[in-house]
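Reminder to self: keep the SMILES exactly as supplied, no canonicalising. Ligand is zinc ion.
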Amino acid sequence: MNKSLSRRKFLSGTSMSVAGLMLESNLRNVGLKKQTGNMDQEESSSRDVMKEVMKYRKIDAHAHLYFSPDTIEEQLGFADRLGIEKLSISRPFTGDVGTHQDVIECNNLIINAIKKHPDRFIGFFTLIPTFAKESLEELKRCVDAGMSGYKGYLQVKVNDPSYYPIIEKLIDLKMICFMHTYSGLGRGGYRTKYGNLYPNETIPEDMIDIAKRYPEMTFQWAHIGAGGDWEYQCKALKDYPNIYIDTSGSNNEAEMVNYAIKYIGEDRIFYGSDTSYYQGVSKILDADLTDAQRRKIFFENYNNVLRKGGYNVD
Ligand SMILES: [Zn+2]
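Structure tokens returned for the bound complex:
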């Protein structure tokens, strides 16, 4: 932090990263005083962040589990401290290629977790659609095991024809087609929406293409906070009512959520963390929103879409 900037002035701004810092501090019960050396008691209580945090019901529309034994308890610990009732968890196979066996192992991780904690986790399965026959079998296995939606990764673009039979099944099941997506920031003043690292990563134009082909399918555009060009993403996706966006990701530029509200609107935005828990909550708290809009983003929008297939919380 810039030492010449007074602490009070710094906190009076509505910067999301500051709220994230405060939140983290509150949650860990470690005073900011310790970190900055110049904070007094009065300032630490000037905004009761935890009261605001706990005021809203929440479903995390973008959460993950990993292959480490302590990950479930960690997830639930964060969720408890932040008042997150349920987390939609997935474990896509994260390489840009993979085998069908990789897919099965990832899905088994999620199936075991939702069986252990059905009251806290909503399970999303993953597939690599180019394994056409196996994918449809795996889809059925996952649905039978209690999964509630689909999470695609970057092996195949969402508008690739190999996705058509999967999307048609998801339509029958009234499940969300949730995709890892990205559109890279440009260089030298150009916002190159094609500047992605992986050739088969879904960009806005791909999702728009498939959303037009299947208007009855609900798509979730992942993590506008993933470090890409969120302004471009919001502008590109604004006219497609069956595309929702989630706010997750570790990037928290101050105007991101305000910008999303302006272009996407308050009804098509889901709150999510993508494992950036404090930031995920604080960027919604610190955006320029009404109470009703916060309730929609934290909980209602996502729950309403889940309700279509009976996967909702209540
Ligand atoms: Zn993610």
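Points to follow up:
Residues 1-18, 29-37 have pLDDT under 50 and may be disordered.
Residues 62, 64, 222, 274 surround zinc ion (CB under 6 Å).
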